[in-house]
Each structure stands twice: as C-alpha cells, then as structure tokens.
Amino acid sequence: MGDSEHKKTDLISSSQEGNTVLDGDDIDTLLTVPKQITCQSGEASLVHIYPTGPLMGTRYTLDEKIIVIGRDPGCDIQLDHASVSRRHAEIRTGSTGKHYVVDLKSTNGTYINDNKATIRTLKDGDNLRIGDFIFRYLSGSNVEAQYHEEIYRLTIIDALTGVHNKRYFLEYLERELARSARYDRYLSLVMLDLDHFKSINGRFGHLGGDYTLREVASVLKNAVRREELFARYGGEEFAIILPETDHEGAMSMAERLRQLIEAHPFQFDENRFHVTISLGVATTKGDASMTPNELIRRADEKLFQAKNAGRNRVEG
Questions:
Q1: Residues known to be catalytic
Q2: Could you write out the DSSP letters of every residue in 89-136?
Q3: Contact 189, 169 (CB under 8 A)
Q4: What's the pLDDT score for residue 35?
Q5: What does the angle CA 76 – CA 82 – CA 86 come to, to the nearest 5 degrees?
Q6: pLDDT value, residue 1
Q7: Quick one: pLDDT at residue 261?
Q8: Helices (H), strands (E): how many in the chain?
Q9: Tell me, what's the pLDDT at 42?
Q10: pLDDT for 35-60, tens place per residue?
Q11: I need a surface site. Which of 15, 91, 94, 297 has the fewest CB within 10 A?
C-alpha cells in the first residue's frame, strides 16, 4: 500500500470517531488534496472575533496551502495561550475550493458552532473555536463586504454570546433615559449575574464556562421582547433595558427570567448541571437628572442585595 493510501486509511479511521460532517465525496476530496491546489486566493477568510483585544477583527486569508493553527511559534496562526495545543488544528483546501478543519488530536478539541469536530467542512458564517479563541469563517461571492459587515458587528455585538455588548447597551440606555424624561414614561433596568460562576469554571474549565454564558444568553434572549434590549455587561453579568415598564412589571419580568434559568438543563460534554442567577431591578420615570451610571448603580445595588440574601432571587 502506498503512502497516499496509508494517509487516506488513517484519516477515514479518525473520521469515524463521530462529529465528522462531510458532503458526498468530500472525504475523497479532502484526503487526496494535491500539493498544487487551484483556488482563488482571498475568497475565504478567518476573522478573529473573540476574545476582545488587539487581535479582534484580525483577518487571515485562506490561500492554497495548509494553514496550521496552534501555540507553537512555527504555526501559520499562532495563539499563545494554554488552552491551545502546540499544533491544534489545520485548515485544508480541497481541489473544489472548499475548506476543511482537521483537528490534530488537540487537548481541548476543535469546535464548529459548539460541535466538536474531528474533520469537518467549513460553511460560510461558521464559528471555529480553537481553545479560548473564536474565528468567523467567511466565504462566498463578496467576502470584502462580509468582512466589513463583520467588523461593524464586532462594535455592537458580544462575539461570545451573540447579544449586544456593553458599548451598545450604554448608548441605548442613554437614549431611553432621554426619552423617559421627555415623555414622562417609565424606564426599568434589570442587572443580573450568574451565581457561583467561578465554581463552574473550576469544574469544567473556561470552555465549560463559556458554554454556560452562551446558553444563559440564548435562553434569556428568547424571553426578551423586540422593544427591549438584552446585553452582556461584562464577565458573567448581563443587563436588560425595559422601556415603558414600571417597577412592578420589571420585577415580574425579572422573576420570570430567574425561573427560566433555574429550570433549564445545562449540559457540557457529558456533564449535566444547573445554573441560577441573581437579579436587581431599578426604575425611573421622567427624571431629567437621571444618568446611565446612576440607574446602573441602583440596579447593581439591588443585585448585590440579592447575592447577600442567598442568591437565586430578585431584589428591587
């Protein structure tokens, strides 16, 4: 059996371990990638979307060669972090121009849209997770437009949870406070925090902690109405702006959210666990002197009371 046949057999064996998602004859395309691949350079990219920092928004064009991602300085995309293996994963280009992720037996695994992958086809818009890092895969007819749209999204959306970020939250709150003062209407703010989040990170690591944040955000986002704003304020703290909602209505909403999280089943890998949240509520009406910082301070004060009173409760 020739070297290419050995390579093909080994990869097919690894693809049967689960999580492999390939289309039709894609396995043959992947496993027989020639050294000279014909694809148009720049038609696909990886964009660094998480964590925030100087690398956020960095664009890596996927050309014809194999792209190695890992902690080792010799990797094409180097991620100098303990959550990343020395040679963590590869991006390969098939003769049809499709791109594939191949996990290199990394310690923490390679994930596509939160699904663990051994060998997997990348599709436009997929999120590729390497350790604590997340990249957005862009391909299609107009990658340039997609890239600029993604950069704009990064200014208003928290990449980890998919909800609005603190910057957008503060701008929105300032507008709603002005509207409340002008029209003498109620405006309520709910601040919430995950209980014992450090213990979740301790049990399941940062990957489990990030999964928990995303799952909490997903559950709560579906419960928030279109005219309300749900945002990640920072760390494990979230905020909800409730325009034209009095204090009683906000307390009722907060209690409903608390119950939703308490009843929701969480599962990371094979581990099932429960999560609770504590919430603080503050309300204003027609107060022209009210500032975003003051309303946040009041809601945070109530959140602190909920924590001190035993957690998994609402204070307002």
A1: 236
A2: EEEEE-TTS-EEEEE-S-SS-EEETTEEESEEE--TT-EEEETTEEEE
A3: no
A4: 32
A5: 40
A6: 46
A7: 98
A8: 7, 18
A9: 47
A10: 333 334 347 899 999 998 888 899 99
A11: 297
Give the strand pairing for 115-117 and 110-112.
Answer: antiparallel
Q: Report d(CA 170, CA 174) in Å as an integer.
A: 6
Name the CA dihedral angle for 200, 201, 207, 211, rounded to a multiple of 10 degrees: 40
pTM: 0.76
Which is it for strands 115-117 and 67-70: parallel, antiparallel or unpaired?
unpaired
CA 228, 168, 158, 248 torsion: positive or negative?
negative
**Cβ atoms of 283 and 247 closer than 8 Å:** yes
Residues in a beta bridge with 93:
99
Strands (E) across the chain are located at 45-50, 59-61, 67-70, 77-78, 89-93, 99-103, 110-112, 115-117, 119-121, 127-130, 133-138, 186-194, 229-234, 237-243, 266-268, 271-273, 277-285, 314-315
Cα angle value 306/308/312 (rounded, 5°):
45
Greater confidence (311 vs 152) lies with 311
Mean pLDDT on 273-299: 97
Strand partners, 194: 277
Q: How far is it, in rounded angstroms, from Cα 302 to Cα 283?
A: 11
| H, E, C per residue of 245-274 | CCHHHHHHHHHHHHHHHHHCCEEECCEEEC
